[in-house]
Amino acid sequence: MTTIELLYDETKIFADIPYKNVDILVPVEQNPLQNALEIINNSFYTPFFGSNSEEKPVSFKGKSIAIAINDQTRPLPHEVLLPGLLRYLNENGAEKENIYFIIATGTHRKLTSAEILQVLPGILSMDYRYSCHECDDEQELVYLGETPLHTPVYVNRKFYQADVKILVGNIEPHHFMGFSGGYKTASIGLGGRKTSEANHAMLPDPKAKLGHFYDNPMRKDVEDIGRMMGVDFALNIVMNDRKEILHALWGDPHTVMEKGISLALAGSRIEKKEADCQYDLVVASAGGYPKDINLYQAQKAITNACLFSKKGGVIILVAGCRNGAGNEKFVSYVRNKPTWQAVLENFPSHKFEIGPHKAYQLALQVRDHYIILISEIPAEEVHNYFLSPAADFKKAVELATAYLKKDCRVAVLPFATHSIPDMEGSV
Question: How is 43-54 classified by DSSP, letter by letter?
């Protein structure tokens, strides 16, 4: 018997696993070498710029400055990041009245007043002008043409027209974009729906997957969109599984990504080769709130859990999902599909939309694994998503037992969205 501790929403679950061969897999422990503010401040004095780009001038005097920040579904420590960035801008001539924050919601809904206080904490929402990006408001978008992969580029007008364009985000492995961070905050977070849908339509490409950057068509497209937007700077961080800042990088968004990927991999990689990750049962936590705010976000943990599971294996996902599925188009799409097989048959010919793409990913995962979900989503609704609901961990283990042998191998991923094996051919 092995007792484990897993994050669930804003609480913890303590559970017993009734098997002998249990590996608890966490990323190699990394601790900050400095406090968060020092790490951020130091990044501005060691900027990263590519060999083909000139270092930007450090005077912001008289210039309009647009700063794109992530929404509440991304757990970034804005209470440290934003004051550090604002201090740097102020020291180099920026005037408060010329600074404007844009919350990069992508295709997500507008934030509530309470959620705005989460992403613009303290007095920031009172001291600075801000708005939420709206991907369907054509009056607020500007068309820039097409990328080499024929994605129509519609972007946030306020951001595009600013003299200085800055992104704030984090770098970590992403389940189909390869890695989050860099231009993605603008290209997808501030893109029109047509832009996001054209980019995400590349999802079935076999190279559109976790850990792939240079050969990933979706990521290549994101880089091209960002260059077309003329983004000047990115402030990106790398965090450990305790959400502590390990590294901060400032400079050209593409170069920041190139420098940050190895740091992000070091903080996420489990010291176990992918070929050795053939576990019969994988128990995964999405990492608690807000990573498990809804199934739409928590599904990323399933992607990572699949990397550790053998084909035909069992996955138990622990994710609060306080906001349910998290995407109405996803819900509407699966409501009319009786089985995961129906999704796989229909999706290739279906007009691409953000939302149903998650159903396609989920169908591929359910095809190869038996997936049990412990969440706040009603059981009948969980069945609609081709998953097996469990009211608690004991019930989940009972469901899993029917598929497992007594000597089965078990992996526990307490921070699944932050955990990947040592994969060959990545980056």
Answer: HTTS-B--TTSP
